[in-house]
Design brief:
Elements lengths: L13 H7 L3 E6 L1 H6 L1 H10 L2 E4 L5 H4 L9 H12 L3 E8 L6 H4 L5 H18 L6 E6 L12 H6 L2 H13 L4 E6 L7 H15 L6 E4 L2 E3 L6 H13 L3 E12 L4 H19 L4 E6 L9 H4 L3 E2 L12 H11 L5
Helix pairs in contact: 7-9, 11-12, 12-14
The structure holds ligand G3I.
Length: about 325
């Protein structure tokens, strides 16, 4: 396979270091880049042993018209993953963004909406049965105050959509691990407690949930405390839940100088140090791996450079910081 010039020095890859300690290290994948960019494919396959679809497994791309399912992009990603010994996290079944207009612009009754969600989950999870090992079943459903967030599914289908989504996913693939995924579940703030209580209640109701996803779209100047991440994972483990870090990136103001990139590296290092010290944390997925395709500049003006490879696939200080943490004999 072609390897981009200057891509890396000698030494073990991130995936080799992670595998040696039983951890999965993944990246969210842009399927267009996977198709068009040989350097992208080479670095992804060399450095990571897990993938998530950044967008290809969301509701609208899967079901652009009612009852018409399109799996081509996601199939391509899953085949790539299988060819390179990578596991696949599915993202995401019940979320309020990236919904098709046939769904959001029509006047469906709550019962019809639940039927639509049921068919979607059943069809999608069944299609990837045995090939997607974990699903983000419900994404970002909790409000700051611990109640349900006011989103499309909650507003129009009612709160039952959460429990039902997990049940339907379990029925469609009993072996897939089912996750609740959200942001700020790891900090010392209100949301961390709120998310913990939310998943605790799901467990108490017998909802088939196996784990919690901590998204972690971080800013280099406001990093979470390493101890708080360790504590969050421990608390979920006390409920019998596994933790995956699911969408890690660390944005900085751009253009970024070396000081800022070093600061960013220490944030990545802290997150990986917390992950490797936490037996309950089995997966760390970055939200991309190269600045070339990161979502950050599209969403946050004057911010970017959030990933461990720059836009020419040169490893940044963050790459070395991750490798160092993964390579430590025992950081527990
Ligand atoms: O595909 C169209 C393209 O045809 C069109 O020309 C272009 C014009 O804007 O839009 C393209 O779609 C965009 C899509 O990304 C693919 O690039 C959408 O507008 C854009 O809204 C979409 O953003 C994604 C966002 O989720 C919404 O689905 C981001 O790439 C993706 O990084 C982001 O990821 C989310 C996680 O799923 C959940 N957690 C938060 C995270 C960040 O928002």
């Amino acid at each position: 396979m072609h390897v981009p010039e200057g891509f890396r020095d000698a030494g073990p890859t991130l995936r080799a270091l992670a595998a040696a300690r039983g951890l999965r290290i993944g990246a969210a994948v842009n399927v267009q880049a996977l198709r068009d960019d040989a350097d992208y494919r080479a670095v992804l396959a060399a450095e990571f042993n897990a993938v998530t679809a950044e967008n290809a497994m969301k509701f609208a791309p899967f079901q652009p018209e009612r009852g018409i399912f399109r799996f081509d992009d996601a199939d391509e990603l899953v085949s790539f993953a299988e060819a390179h010994g990578m596991t696949v996290r599915g993202h995401t079944l019940a979320w309020h963004e990236t919904l098709p207009s046939w769904l959001t612009e029509a006047d469906h009754t709550p019962g019809e909406l639940l039927d639509i969600l049921h068919t979607h989950i059943q069809t999608v999870v069944d299609h990837f049965r045995g090939r997607v090992f974990a699903w983000d079943v419900v994404n970002e459903a909790v409000a700051e105050d611990g109640s349900y967030r006011d989103t499309f599914w909650h507003r129009h289908a009612g709160p039952r959509f959460v429990d039902l989504a997990f049940q339907w996913a379990r029925e469609a693939d009993p072996d897939a691990r089912l996750f609740y995924n959200d942001f700020q579940g790891e900090g010392s703030g209100h949301r961390a407690k709120t998310i913990y209580r939310f998943v605790k209640r799901l467990r108490a109701r017998g909802v088939p949930i196996d784990g919690v996803g901590l998204q972690m779209h971080l800013r280099a100047d406001r990093p979470p405390n390493r101890r708080h991440i360790v504590r969050a994972v421990k608390r979920f483990a006390s409920l019998g839940l596994e933790t995956h870090i699911t969408e890690l990136d660390v944005r900085v103001p751009v253009p970024a100088d070396w000081l800022v990139l070093d600061r960013q590296a220490s944030v990545y290092g802290d997150v990986f140090s917390a992950a490797t010290a936490s037996p309950g944390c089995t997966n760390v997925v970055l939200w991309g791996f190269t600045d070339r395709y990161s979502w950050i500049p599209h969403r946050f003006e004057d911010w970017g450079a959030a990933l461990p490879f720059d836009d020419s696939y040169r490893p940044k200080p963050a790459y070395a910081a991750i490798a160092t943490e993964l390579g430590k004999r025992n950081s527990q």
